[in-house]
UniProtKB/TrEMBL annotation:
Catalytic residues identified in the record: H68
CDD domains: secretory_peroxidase
Job of this protein: Removal of H(2)O(2), oxidation of toxic reductants, biosynthesis and degradation of lignin, suberization, auxin catabolism, response to environmental stresses such as wounding, pathogen attack and oxidative stress. These functions might be dependent on each isozyme/isoform in each plant tissue.
Domain of life: Eukaryota
GO molecular function (one): metal ion binding
Membrane-crossing segments per the record: 6-24
Cofactor binding comment, as recorded: Binds 2 calcium ions per subunit.
Protein name: peroxidase
Length: 236
């Protein structure tokens, strides 16, 4: 439990680095809603803390939601736009992203108190911070919600079939280091490695990007048709 908590804290701080990159390009500031909706952050915090208390997995789930929103077009809440055939959420890299009900709950409470004031983009960012019981950090707010959500725009998200070199490249493009990559992802599960281990190349070959000396160890931990929930280290 302790190691999981530390990992969540580190991941939260890494995602905040992406936010900093976005902040430098927009007119955002800490305490943006201090006059228009002064209780906004405390309301979001209460909703999130209850959700995490009810199900501790929600902490990691909210962090993942925030990361996937930030990675595509910056922190604009576009991942929340649904009901389109080609919306962002349908991208392969967004497989399994959930927890919209928590964001919806916070938004509903804010709309009752301050209609049309607090953006969903800010709720996602504040929720990610408040989901982790770690060091508090200020979140600049004032972001307007995006209106465009297309699957093609999310094509560069980290994907389950990406080699470690591709993952490094995708993180580096966002100003994140290899250390950030390892801290955020840390490990993967056999479910996400089956294709790379047994069926990436014609005829059922393994991913040639995997270090040859490491391949037998990965296959030993993840046998073909074995337990897909077993956790394994990244092939870096």
């Amino acid at each position: 439990k302790g190691n999981t908590q530390i990992a969540l804290i580190l991941a939260s701080l890494i995602i905040s680095n992406i936010v900093v990159l976005v902040v430098s390009q927009g007119q955002l500031r800490v305490g943006f809603y201090s006059k228009t909706c002064p209780n906004a952050e405390s309301i979001i915090r209460k909703v999130v803390q209850k959700a995490v208390a009810d199900n501790p997995r929600n902490a990691a789930i909210l962090l993942r939601l925030h990361f996937h929103d930030c990675f595509v077009q910056g922190r604009d809440g576009s991942i929340l736009i649904r009901n389109y055939e080609d919306d962002e959420l349908k991208a392969q890299g967004n497989l399994g992203v959930v927890s919209f009900d928590i964001i919806d709950s916070a938004k509903a409470r804010l709309e009752n108190l301050c209609p049309g004031i607090v953006s969903c983009a800010d709720i996602v960012s504040l929720a990610a911070r408040d989901a982790v019981n770690g060091p508090f950090y200020d979140v600049p707010t004032g972001r307007r919600d995006g209106r465009v959500s297309k699957m093609s725009l999310a094509a560069n998200l980290p994907d389950v079939d990406d080699s470690i070199n591709v993952l490094k490249s995708k993180f580096n493009e966002k100003g994140l280091s290899d250390k950030d990559l390892v801290t955020y992802i840390g490990a993967t599960a056999c479910f996400f490695m089956q294709k790379r281990l047994y069926n990436l190349t014609p005829g059922g070959g393994s991913d040639p990007a995997i270090i040859p000396g490491f391949l037998p160890q990965l296959k030993d931990k993840c046998p073909f048709n074995g337990d897909v929930n077993v956790r394994i280290p990244l092939d870096s």
